[in-house]
Amino acid sequence: MRQALIDAALSIAKEDGVDQVTVREAGKRAGVSSGAPFRHFPTKTALMTAVAEEAMRRFRAQISVELDKAEHLDPLSRFRALGSAYLRWVIDNPTHFEVISMRRAIDFDASETLVQLNEEIRDLMVRILDDARAAGQLRTMDVEGVPLQARALVYGLARMWIDGQFAQWGGAEKAELLMKQSLDGFLALLAKQDSEISAARSD
Q1: In which region does residue 193 sit, left (phi positive, over 0), alpha (psi from -120 to 50) or beta (all else)?
Q2: What is the rounded CA–CA span in Å between residue 39 and residue 6?
Q3: 140 φ/ψ angles, rounded to the nearest 5 degrees
Q4: d(CA 43, CA 49)
Q5: Domains and CATH numbers, the chain
Q6: 163 phi, psi to nearest 5 deg
Q7: Quick check: 144 and 150 in contact, CB under 8 A?
Q8: Which candidate among 2, 13, 118, 150 keeps its CA 20 to 30 Å from the CA of 90?
Q9: DSSP code per residue over 20-68
Q10: Euclidean distance between CA atoms 53 and 182, whole angstroms
Q11: Residue partners of 52: CB distance under 8 A and separation at least 6
Q12: Res 201 pLDDT > 70
């Protein structure tokens, strides 16, 4: 029943928006008695937190798949693969993204699953950037703020996709291309140019 309620809540959120989800309506869609859902999810927040946990597990799994594919690449290319995986996942799973990002609808801090997986993704970013710095790929040695900057970029692009704003920037059909171009532009600011790498080697 618990999974049926999570699936029903996601279906309601997809069709009518997260704000329209209720435990009672999820129970109705799942075909259970009116009181039964509350034994699993006493509040809407509890139900939506469970939906967010499932979404985050899927998101984390997708990142692992994409990073495994990019294992043979240099660190900065792996960092790009991580960002691309984020954007692709949002395009394929817009409702899951909305649930995760709508913090007023879930209890993020109280969920061990959400906190742990979010920290894992952040740690991945930091480790890959450290590898890029060690490999001499970055212009700056101070990368402490880069994970936040990168997260802000891909989150903002994802939000623009969800809100339909790419129509103003060349058309929704070009959204994925525009997002990847924006990501590449950000990475170009971080990366040393070929001339800089050659100069560093000669030094």
Answers
A1: beta
A2: 13
A3: -115, 150
A4: 10
A5: 1-42 (1.10.10), 51-202 (1.10.357.10)
A6: -85, 0
A7: no
A8: 2
A9: G--HHHHHHHHT--TTTHHHH-SSHHHHHHHHHHHHHHHHHHHHHHHHH
A10: 29
A11: 99, 100, 106, 108, 111, 114
A12: no
Write out the two tokens for 83.
Answer: 């960002």
Residue 191: strand pairing partners = 138
Q: Count of alpha carbons within 13 Å of 37, Cβ hemisphere only?
A: 25
Rounded Cα–Cα distance for residues 105 and 78 (Å): 32
What is the C-alpha to C-alpha distance for residues 172 and 166, in angstroms, rounded to an integer?
A: 5
Tens digits of residue pLDDT in 73-130? 999 999 999 999 999 999 999 999 999 988 889 999 999 999 999 999 999 999 999 9
**What are the tokens at 127?**
């480790």
